[in-house]
Amino acid sequence: MTNIILLGPPGAGKGTQSKKLENILNVIQLSTGDMLRAEVASGSDLGNQAKDVMDAGGLVSDDMIIGMISKRVDQDDCAQGFILDGFPRTVPQAEALGIMLAEKSLNLDHVIELTVDDEAMVDRICGRYTCAKCGSGYHDSFQKPAQEGVCDKCGGKEFSRGVDDNTDTVRARLKAYHEQTAPISTFYGEIGILKQVDGMAEIENVTRQLENIVS
Ligand code: ADP
Ligand code: ADP
Ligand code: ZN
Question: Is the pTM of this model over 0.90?
Answer without folding.
Answer: yes
